[in-house]
Structures are given as C-alpha cells and as structure tokens.
Amino acid sequence: MDATPKITPRKSSTFDDYSLSEIRRAAASGLYDIRGGGAKRKVPHFDDLLFLGASISRYPLEGYREKCATDVWLGTRFAEKPIHLKIPITIAGMSFGSLSAQAKEALGRGASQMGTSTTTGDGGMTEEERGHSTILVYQLLPSRYGMNPDDLRRADAIEIVIGQGAKPGGGGMLLGQKISDRVAEMRTLPKGIDQRSACRHPDWTGPDDLEIKIQELREITDWQKPIYIKVGASRPYYDTALAVKAGADVVVLDGMQGGTAATQEVFIEHVGLPILGAIRPSVQALQDLGMHRKVQLIVSGGIRSGADVAKALALGADAVSIGTAALVALGDNDPALEDEYQALGTTAGAYDDWHEGRCPAGITTQDAALAERLDPALGGRRLANYLSVLTLETQTIARACGKSHVHNLEPEDLVALTVEAAAMAKVPLAGTDWIPGSKSD
Amino acid sequence: MPDIDLGVTPLRELNAALHRLTPETNERHWVIENPAGRHAIAAGLHVPVTVEINGPVGYYCAGMNKLATVLVHGSAGVGVAENMMSGFVHVSGDASQAAGATGRGGLLRIDGNASSRCGISMKGIDIVVKGSVGHMSAFMAQAGNLVVLGDAGDSLGDSIYEAKLFVRGSVKSLGADCIEKEMRDEHKAAVHDVLARAGFNSEVDPSEFKRYGSARKLYNFNVDHAGEY
Amino acid sequence: MCGIVGLFLKDPALEPELGRLTARMLATMSDRGPDSAGFAVYGAGEAGQTKLTLRGASPLAMEETAAEIESAFPGAKTILHDTHAVIAVPDQEVEAVIKWLEREAPETEVVGRGKRMELYKEVGLPQKVAERFDLAAMRGTHAIGHTRMATESAVTTDGAHPYSTGKDQCLVHNGSLSNHNNLRRELKREGLRFETENDTEVAAGYLTWRMREGLSLGDALKVSLDDLDGFYTFVVGTENGLGVLRDGIACKPAIMAETDKYVAFGSEYRVLAELPGIGQARVWEPEPATVYFWER
Q1: Whether residues C140 and C267 fall in one domain
Q2: d(Cα A282, Cα A317) in Å, to the nearest integer?
C-alpha cells in the first residue's frame, strides 16, 4: 500500500501572512502599527470605469490643432482674487516636517513651471515654499502649527482642513525622529518628542461655527483669497452641502487612497470611502444647491494617470490633487534604491514607514544627509514632466470624446466594468443601461 | 481719533480701514461703538494702534492680533485674541470658549471669567484671568503662561506640552499628564512679570499661586501609558 | 448646524411681549440656520382642554381640514395660522380627533399637543417663518425657538425643530448625536413612533420615554448624559418651565442671561443683545453635563 499522500498546506485567507505578522508585531510592541501612505488594499477605483470614445454619433477633435483647454478658475464665489490654474491638477497638502525642505522646493518648482498650485501642510509655510511656488495654498489645521496672519496674507488661497482621506476624524502625526530643530521651532514643540495631535479645531466645532470662522479669515485677508474646505470622504453629500452653507469657495474631497505622512494602519485601511464612491454624491450636493461649477470641487486619493484625471472630471470635479503620485515622480520608492529598502526591511514600492524619517530618496525625511540626495531642480523638472504627461493624457481622452475643454467631460461619457463601480459612480454597466441603485433600477 | 458706529459703518469697512493703517499712521486711537456682539471685530490688526470697543463683542475679536492694543469694554465671544502674535488685548467682562486659542505671543487679560478651553493649544501667548477658567483650559498647551487668579475647571492642562500654568484658587481636576509642580523663585518672578505687564501693580502676591505643568510622560509613546491617550 | 433661542418670563407683565422678543431673537439666528425655523409658545390654557397644533400641506388645505374637524367635533375650536392650525378640544376627545385625522386627513400632521403649548415650524428663512405665523403677536410665559442648517437629514419641514413627543413637551437641539440610530431602534421597541431620520427627534423621544417611565424632566436629562452620545446643547420646554443641558464636552455654544424679569438662552450673545435690561443682566455660560431648569 502507498503511504497516505499529504494534503497541500493551506494558508488562511482571513489569517493571511500580513495579518499574522501584524498580530506578532502587536504582541511584541504593545503599540499600533503606524505608517504613511493611503489605503493599499484593492477597492473600487477609476480602473473600473471606461470612456466611450467617438464613433458614428460623436466626433473626435484633432490632436494639437483643435484646442482642448485645460484651465480652471478656483474661488470665483466670494474671493476678490480667485486663482487661475493652467491645468486641473494641483499638489496636495504635505507638511514641511513630513517632507524634507528639498522635496517641498522640488514640488514648488515643478508646479510653478506647469502653472498650478502647491499646498502647505501641518507645520506652516516655509520661505522656500513661498519662494518657489507661484501659487500657494495655505492650510489651516486643528493644530495651527506655525499659523500666523502674515503667511495668511501672502498665501494665494486658504484651505481649512477638517480632515483627510487617509484618516477622516484623525489629526496630524509626526514622531520624534522627524521633529528636528527646524521643525520643532516652526511648531513650537520640544525637539525629538512625539507630536500628539488635535483632531478637532480649537476654536470652532460644527458648520454653524465654521461659518463664523470663515468670516474671520475673510475679514483678516480683506476678502481677497479663495477659501477651500478639505474633508476626507465620509459623508460626501452632507459635507459638501455644509461646506457650501458655511461659505466655502472650494471643496476639496480626499478619498481613502489619499496618503498621509503617518497614522495608524487601521485608520488608513478601515475609515473613509474610496474616492470613486464620493464624487457623485458631492457633485449632487452642489447641483442640488445650484452651486456646481460655482463652488469648485477638487478631488484626490489615488490619482495616477491622465485617465484618472479625466474620469474625475467626467464625474463632475473641477480639478484633482496629487500627493503620493507627486512624491513618486520625485523619486520615492525608486527601485534604483532597492538595496537600501531591503536594509530597512522592505522593498521598493512597499516602503511606507515614512514616520521613521529614513527615506533613502531624501523625500520623507529630516535627516540632512539623506535629504541632500534630492536635487530640488531635478526633482522639479521630473514633477513638471509628470504633470505634463497627466495633462496630455487627459486631453487625449477628452478629444477622443469630442470635448474642446476638459470640463465638458460628463458622466454619460463613462461606463463601468463592475456592478460596484457602476453603483458608486452612477454610470451604467458597460453594454447595458443598468445603473444599480438608481431610482429607475 | 476715529469714532466708528458699527450700527452705521459695515464691519468689513472698519476692518479694511484698520488693515490699511501703516506703522507711521496718526490715527492711533480708534473707538468703536455699538458692537452688539458682532464677530471678527478688529481681527487681523498689524500696527501698534489702540482700538477701544464699547460693548460686547462676538467671536474672534482681535483674532490674529499683531502689535495692536485692543480694549473690549464688555464681554467677548468665542476665540477672543485667537492666534494672537503680539500686542495686548484686554476684556473687561467675561470671555467665552477658547479665549487666546493657539496664541503665539502677546498678552491677553480677562477681568471676568473665561469659559472652557481658555488657552487651548497656546503657543507662547501669556494669558491672565482675574476670574476663573472653565474645563479643558490649557488643553495641549505648548508654550506661554496662563495665570488664573480664580479657580480652574475640570481637566486643566490635559495633554500639556511646555506651557506654564499658575492658578491661585482651586483646580477641579487635572488633565492627562498635567501635574502640580514646585513654585520656585523664578516662577514667582515670572508670575510677577506677567501680572505687571497686564497692569496689576503688585496688588497680587505671586506666592499665592500653585504651578502646574507637564509630567512629560507622553512625550514618547510608551505602552504603559496607553490609557492616557 | 443650528441656532437656539429660549425665553422664560418671570415677570407676568412681560407676557404680552413674549412673541415679539422671541421673534427678534429668532431673526438674529438666521446666519446659523437659514434652512428652516420653528418655535413653541406656551400661552393660555384651559382646564379640561387640549390644544393640538396641526400642520397642513398649504394654508388652504389647513383651512379645509380645520372646517371638517369643527363639523365632525362640535366641541372643537380652531384658530388658523397659515399652514398651521391650533385646535382646542376637550381632553376626552383628543384620541378620537387624532384617529379621525389619521383616517380622513393623513397628510395633516399633529406637530404638538398639550394644555398650553403651540408649536409651529416651516422651511424658509427664520424671519419669514416667524412672520408667516405672526409670532410677534403671540403672548405667553415661555417660548423656545430654533433655526436650522440641516446636517445629515433633508431640508424639509419634518426635519425642523422643535420636536414634540409628549404632552406640552418639546425640544430644540444644536449639535450632532452619534448613536441616535441605535437609540431610535430601541425606542421603537418601547412603542414610540418616529416620523423622520433626524437625531433630534430621537432625543425628544428619549426624554418622553424616560418621563413616561416615571422620571422628572430633570432626572431624564441627567440620565440622558449617559445614554446619548455626541455633542449637544438641548433646550426643553414643558408645561410650566424651560430646561437647558449641554453634553460633557460642551463644544457647541450656549449663553444665558438672567434678570429678575426673565431667563433667556441663545447660541450667541447677539441673540440676547436686545433684550430689555440686558446691560444689567447676569450673563453666563451653562456648565457642561449640568441640568438647568426654571419653572413657574
């Protein structure tokens, strides 16, 4: 008789390698896992949407000769000096502190070359940033680190941060390794300690009091600057309606794929919506209030290519914002540094322990030696190249759909590959006229 | 000496006029009548002038004040002198929540009571309260001095960093990582200095105050303190 | 989110002014809540009589329904106010009238009932709402009012405050509860009915339930601190009094003013600024997690 064959060892889907390693780590340390970046697990996203290019009933535009405009005005509702961007892609808020000064400078150079804006983060405005960004959006966060009226007045717009997609309901986090002398001084913190963060604003709670806060900011800046409100995607319909009622010029909506410098892993993966499910409700709120295109909508969270940009615009956004992608363009997670990533216990493409401040690319670090590895001028050129490609790709798709301005993309230009994406984006499943969950369903 | 009636002049016009002032201006003393609880009065000042407001003000009066002196003859709403950079703000009545919130410099004096969250997230401002302060005062306070002649409410100095708190009366309870600390000569001198700058002319004895500050146990995460977060 | 106003008169001489003062307070709170407004006025009551405040789809519909009620119930007396009507009926006929309405006029809603309470609410700017119902002409001992900026539920009249879930009881709320869905399910099992998805309606139902189970309003408010989660400032009206409660974190604003003639509540000081004698009033902010109550 043959020996009984062994069955194939089978790992558990529930208790997979990652979950097992995390339980072991938690048991050893007693501390939750902290990392940077956005949600990594697969969620319905723009990949599940497709455009309907021109055919017999629709005519495309010729490339280059026949214009496809990409500019966008932000802040036209109340601001005396609204912002005019050449492209509908902005750089999202990322702090000096979470990023090196060289990285901030590179972002400014690249964005300015393409006629778009950068945004400060949870640490305040640096001279380099103001110097290198032609259009700079200044964030007002719960922490108010570095907040001052002079920077408020020399900003081009003000962004009141309620939350961000990676952690709606959470505050900023910067661990001691990155609280260098300069960061400590800007934030009025002792050097080397772990920054604890407020998750609510100190002097207002709720949209009724937010309205009064916005009024104060407008009075201080003599009503000149556009005021944005940024929220993590959570209850996008209500949040957008309330932002409008509170008096915002622009709504910035960040999905769960949007990155953070550092927060608890469970927060990133299990709180907040994918951006795909948040855009239509937000646009619906604007339309219900008669404010679509009058209060502009900027969306972010997993924008990678011009296809993503075009899809976001087609669903009703006025512009998109990039964070993670911008850092990758600068050189983050570059396979050329694989040896160093291995030394850190990770691999290129997976490195997300940015809070430790040991970024081999010199981007998410305060270590002077590492930060020097990033040449801001070169980084700026790379970012400008990338933004240029995003724009050209968006225009390619828009022209194929017959649009002379990217804002003329509309939901009816899209179909979905999956039932989930069809329901979330409210576009039909490809080849059908079925939109799951719609009133006519 | 400009005299403005907010019942007649729109607030936006007043604030715009105040913002246009240069350091060499001759209009150094402004009197505002009829504030009637309006918000953001005299917010964003940036020259060393004096603005006197006859009546109660709403939210964010003297918000982000720089260099100016703002005198409120009445009570103040939420966030008076929020994020002040420098200068002096004096409220003769009570102040509502978040008085001096995130203030980075200058001096705020409140003759009545301040409500909850007085000095929340303060980053270098000095605050003197003749009356009492409410709950969660000096929450996450990073730098500056809070001097309270009356009592303090629950959770004083919760999650405090390096601000120094001095309370003459009772403290209902202390917040996470906030402890009583020794009152040494240099602290008495600091209290004396703040009070003198606020105009108290030695009528208050610094020895009567107790000092409160950070135990510094939350500065780097330790699992044994997890309950404090 | 919202603005709240409340006025409790200690001095009977001010009773003819109640409506005028409340209307002005309400108008000041338009900025905080432009979507809809409502108020409850506690005026004269008669022993043995209950006042039902009804809301119809339109002034004409309300007028027709009121006429039908009067012919079906000879003991009923109606006074019309735009889309609303106050119907006074003998106590023993109240249930019959309500059943009649459910059968014959299901679109007409009973928004309030009690010996003295009348309750009005509509979509629109607070000042306009007050004018529609001529609040300025109303008199009584106490009133509460509310201006709404809808947060998580729709801008409809149903979403407007005050909410009434008991006789002479009503509630207005500024804030946002976070466990109201679970509570609503439990209260439904206890037999309470809810018309909306609104969190304030749940709070009103919760208090009614507690009082039905034997607690005083003061004690019901006290235990609510444990059972209700979220941020809230409540102002409650009862037949003879007015109550105020803020949650333990107390982020939402609340100002009170007291003289020997009245006690007043507002979400901002501006609300109180034009009350008689405000210059000499004691002005203070209610402490968190503390029940305040004034009664005639």
Answers
A1: yes
A2: 9
Interface residue C30 vs chain A (CB under 8 A): no
Quote the ipTM score.
0.95
For chain B, domains (ranges, CATH) are 3-228 (2.160.20.60)
Mapping DSSP to helix (H, G, I), strand (E, B) and coil, where does residue A439 land?
coil
Domain interval for residue C56: 46-115
**Could you say which of C76, C98, C115 is where a domain stops?**
C115
Distance CA B133, CA A14 (A): 52
CA distance A200 to B226: 21
**Rounded Cα gap, residues A268 and A263, in angstroms:** 7
CATH number at residue C183: 3.60.20.10
CATH T-level fold of A46-409: TIM Barrel (3.20.20)
Distance CA B156, CA A314 (A): 51
- pLDDT tens sequence across C163-189: 987 899 999 999 989 999 999 999 999
> Alpha carbon A173 to chain centroid distance?
17
Write down the pLDDT at residue C292.
Answer: 95
C2 is catalytic: yes
C251/C167 same-domain check: yes
Q: In what order do the strands lie in the sheet with A135-140?
A: A89-91, A319-322, A296-300, A250-254, A227-232, A157-161, A135-140, A117-119
Per-residue buried b or exposed e for A129-162, using 16+ beta carbons within 10 Å of the residue's own CB: bbebbebbbbbbbbbbbbbbbebbbebbbbbbbb
Closest CA–CA distance from residue B15 to any residue of chain A (Å):
7
Which residues contact residue A398 at a Cβ distance below 8 angstroms, ignoring those fewer than 6 apart?
A: A68, A310, A405, A406, A408, A409
Rg of the Cα trace of chain A? 22
Q: Say which CATH number the domain at C84 has.
A: 3.30.2130.10
pLDDT tens column, B135-189:
999 999 999 999 999 999 999 999 999 999 999 999 999 999 999 999 999 999 9
On whether both C92 and C125 belong to a single domain, the answer is no
Residues C185 and C40 both lie in one domain: yes
Residue C154, pLDDT > 70, answer: no
Would you kindly state where each structural domain of chain A is located, as residue ranges?
Answer: 46-409
Which of C1, C2, C78, C261 is the catalytic position? C2
pLDDT tens track for B4-14: 999 999 999 99
Which of A186-195, A246-255, B143-152, C80-89 comes out lowest in average pLDDT?
Answer: A186-195
Count of structural domains, chain C:
2
CA distance C256 to C5: 10
- Using an 8 Å CB-CB cutoff, list residues of chain A that contact chain B: 29-31, 143-144, 147-150, 152, 176, 188-190, 193-194, 196, 198, 202-204, 209, 212-213, 215-216, 219-223
Strands C230-237 and C241-246: antiparallel
- Residue C273, pLDDT above cutoff 70: yes
Q: How far apart are CA C54 and CA C33, in angstroms?
A: 23
Residues C32 and C54 in one domain: no
